[in-house]
Design goal:
It is built from 5 helices and 3 strands. The chain is of the alpha+beta class.
């Protein structure tokens, strides 16, 4: 059983700042003001990273007055974890198997 892993999501998560944002959002919903305080990154830079996280389906938004709160979509991470677990299972089953040259 070969499992397909969403390489676009992995690329999004490969950036250290985006991974930091994901870790922060795992604990609570935050707005960009909170994320600026937590990460030290500029607001425009954070907005760009948050857009990529939204486009990848990892983050949801919720308008709250003049602010937008961002929250992590746990089901998106669970799907990725499931894909990676499937890939690991495939590798475990294939241990010792070699294609002849």
């Amino acid at each position: 059983m070969v499992t397909s892993v969403d390489s676009d999501v992995l690329k999004v998560l490969a950036d250290p700042l985006r991974m930091q944002i994901v870790q922060l959002l795992a604990r609570e919903a935050l707005c960009t003001t909170h994320l600026v305080e937590e990460t030290g990154a500029r607001q425009t830079n954070l907005s760009n990273h948050l857009k990529l996280l939204r486009d990848a389906g990892l983050v949801d938004t919720e308008p709250c007055g003049r602010f937008t709160y961002y929250s992590l979509r746990p089901e998106a991470l669970e799907a990725l974890a499931g894909d990676l677990a499937g890939l690991a299972a495939t590798a475990r089953e294939a241990a010792g198997r070699k294609r002849s040259c």
